[in-house]
């Protein structure tokens, strides 16, 4: 099974090369892209089953064993992230193909979209599977380089201006990350994660804490944790709908994944837990208050994206198996639901010609299916029973109560308030955009929504409902993954079976 580990990275890269060579043949580009992402999803499912049953699957790239060579590691956490990301990127790709047949030439995906999108996918999967800090950095840089192209796709003035902010912030976080990598190597003589798990414990407490905070700073910018999140609501909404959706669903979660991986494997002991709890609470509350103040659907969803990152950081900060399990479950839930909502925003713009809540209304009457496609994930995001959002929040809040103490108690209260305000925001959007009398934008002659766009959105809504139906088995996987993360030895022994110090 180890031969399968590199495929989620290699297959999209090969697909990117083929689609670039076939730039003048869009049908072949689409077929290759769909085949590559479908194959990546199938491989990811096999890796998840293998990791759950038999432990981490490791491959030494080029035949050079760890810690000298680069290793890719598919433990339960990494394999689960690759499965969810592959499913989401496949659905968004189908959505973009449907949109390409309906949009004007200015914003439609051009020939460069498919190779760039596949490179982005390879970067995401490489980051999840990376077994050393530098390869994790490479994964980030691959996905960021592709995202620079995608966020400015179409070359409009607005996209170039907001994309410039995104590029500057991304380069800054990469510089901090690269500096951290250099400092870690200078202090330990290695970048292999399994070997770092052994050597970092021997460093003086001050040096160890400094390295931890440097990495947290870099990853928090990428994850859009408050107060390092101001760039996101201004950057994401201007991109094409499928690009915004995949960015919202995946890119910030790669940052969250890096925080989970490093805080559990490299820096156990909870030295930064208090700081993480404080920023988690501020991220939840300030993010959702920003959403309350918005009148544009895409900006509103961008603020809810920031807000709910706080739930995941809260779970990490608890430093318990229950907290980590809840955080991982919520990452899986949020990738699916937040991506779905941005795809729905694209459908609203397609049908009404705008996402400005002051200009649209009556969508439930003129496009009832669109109303259903919004209502289900919106209630899921708000945490209405019995959806997966409710189950994920309950798991996190119960973990916080179990830890006890003033600060976890404040975080439990903040999480509850954030959930109620999310419900308020979702209800407000429903009442204005879908329930009230039609406005000018939606009273014009009906625009037929492309079937493939609708079908891809339906598939993601169904995936969100599947997470609810399979919440029990999924919690089993996340709890098992969290236990391994806390234990650390399954990962270390899989990568370094000989116990290299």
TrEMBL record:
The keyword Cell membrane applies. GO terms for biological process: ATP synthesis coupled electron transport. It is found in: Cell membrane; Membrane. GO terms for molecular function: NADH dehydrogenase (ubiquinone) activity. Its main location: membrane. Pfam families: Proton_antipo_M. One of its GO terms (cellular component) is plasma membrane. It is a multi-pass membrane protein. InterPro entries: CPA3_Na-H_Antiporter_D, NADH_UbQ_OxRdtase, ND/Mrp_TM. The chain crosses the membrane at residues 6-24, 31-52, 77-98, 110-130, 136-154, 166-187, 207-232, 239-260, 275-293, 300-321, 327-348, 369-387, 407-431, 452-475. Residues 130-422 form the NADH:quinone oxidoreductase/Mrp antiporter transmembrane domain. Keywords: Cell membrane, Membrane, Transmembrane, Transmembrane helix. The keyword Transmembrane applies. Belongs to the CPA3 antiporters (TC 2.A.63) subunit D family. PANTHER family: NA(+)_H(+) ANTIPORTER SUBUNIT D1, NADH DEHYDROGENASE. This is Multicomponent Na+:H+ antiporter subunit D. It comes from Micromonospora jinlongensis.
